[in-house]
Amino acid sequence: MAGRNMGLHFLLLITLSISTNVVLKCEATTYNTNTELVKPTTEITIVASTMPGANGDDTAPMFLTPPKLDPVFEYSQYVVSVDCSSLAADTTMSISTNDPGITRLVGNKTLTLRAGVEDCTNLTVVTDHLGRGRLYFEYSSAVEPAAASTHPNFTLPDFYDIVVIRMPTVIDMIFVPAIITLAVCTNIIMGTEVNFPTIKAIAKKPIGLIVAGFCQFVTMPLIAFGICKLVDMPGDVAIGLLLVGCAPGGGTSNMLTFLIDGEVTLSIAMTFFSTALAMGMMPLNTFVYARWVTTDDTYSASNIPYTKLLTTIVSLTIPVGVGMLVKRFLPNFTKKAMKVFKPFVVVTILVVIATGVYNGLYIFRLMTPTMIMISYLLPVCGFISGGLGAAIFGQRCSKLKTIAIEVGIQNGGVVATMSRLAFEQPDADLAIIVPVCIMIMTSSLTIAIGVIHVIAKKCIPRYRDLIRRDKLAMREEGLMDAKQAKQFDDEEHKNASTNGHRGSGGSSIRFSQIVDFDSAKESYI
């Protein structure tokens, strides 16, 4: 059943891995981390003669012009003028910054402000990368601060906000619609892969779905919350990690389940149900945990756009239902449409990767060892929690592997798309860094798991027998589509002709004991 779209997932996985290596090499040669002033991409001097006064009073003289840099672009230099005409006495101003990586001051950090001078000095600010920067001011004077001004409405500011965003490009205009199109198209394909008779058979024994759902929307958000509390991280990193922890399962889990001889039909069913549940559970979990994961006001519970998050996840889930309805009522049309639709998706994937590599260069530049560590830690904890949950309820090996993979692989693409659409800049660009990092690290874990499975299957006879026994159980329970059932039957005929019988768990299971399901195959096509 899932074999029809395995090639799409495999192409995306391999190309993403190659692209990651290319980007890392490019970034190593283009990004300069020197603390000295580097010639910026653009030099912009901001001069304003009619700016609102301090405290919003137009009659009060402006101390800093402009009152804030919001927004400004990366790799640029800005000049902020200081008006000291309202100072009653000479004052010393010491300047510090909340994050030198976002913005930094060129020149002396301690300035002498001459009383009564209109343009007494300038602040030269360099923006190094996107984010929310802030300059902090401390003053010392021969007079009290309250008596330091000749104007009743004038106050000396304690800080100065600088909001840095990326320079918009044509690539942005292509990338965002392309990634939205890809998310919608892959969800439509997921809907067409849902087999109603198989879903009905799985629903008769729903323990796998229940365990996966519990781990997905109870355990994983709690794990993400725990990592956020244990590891000191900025607000954008924490909220990105939390959103991934609250996300539904991803389509990559179907591919990996197929590769390690899991139960693909169960994996598809779990991905479908988790995507449907995410419409309510993802905003709910975000609301519950967001207020505790960071003290950054930008990502506080009151500032998170829950309505936009809910609207986005619903918009991305509806195509799954569309795909199901089209397959249900127009099966012949679905087969013909998929012949055109899937090549279109392949082209869209290539466009997303090509534009995404260029568009996402900043992501690799801003990655830190802490981000890489938590990007491995979250999916590994998901694999463990899903496997433990399945083991506690006595699930067979194939189901245990399927549930573990489904819980561990989150839909980072949905999170990245949601963040792009829900948050304002630069918060949208910052919030997707961790989801993208998790997708890359999960891809490497996927490759490692696949290699371990192949080695174990080749070198451990008991593991091979266990896989065969699980496939036999799936065959008897009707959890294989016609293609999978035929492939299994062919393998069994081949084994029966060469060996006569194969041992399993210390007992012999002859092929003649397998129930003939030929008449039932057609019901699963």
Class of secondary structure makeup: alpha+beta
Termini separation comes to: 9 Å
Overall pLDDT score: 74
Strand content: 5-15%
> Percent range for helical residues?
55-70%
Global geometry:
elongated
Rg value: 29 Å
Count of DSSP strands: 12
Which residues sit in consecutive blocks of at least 5 with pLDDT less than 50?
1-60, 501-525
Biggest sheet statistics: 5 strands, mixed
Instruction: Please trace the helix and strand order, writing H or E for each element.
Output: HEEEEEEEEEEHHHHHHHHHHHHHHHHEEH
By DSSP (H or I, 4+ residues per run), the number of helices equals: 18
Concise summary:
With 525 residues, the protein is an alpha+beta fold. Helix content is 58%, strand content 12%.
Q: In words, what does this structure look like?
A:
With 525 residues, the chain is an alpha+beta fold. 58% of the residues lie in helices and 12% in strands. The protein has 18 helices and twelve strands. Strands 1, 2, 4, 6 and 8 form a five-stranded mixed sheet that branches. A hairpin with a 2-residue loop joins β11 and β12. α7 runs antiparallel to α8 and α8 (306-329) runs antiparallel to α9. The radius of gyration is 29 Å and the shape is elongated. It starts with 5 loop residues before the first helix and ends with a helix. 40% of the residues are buried. The model is unreliable at 1-60 and 501-525 (pLDDT under 50).
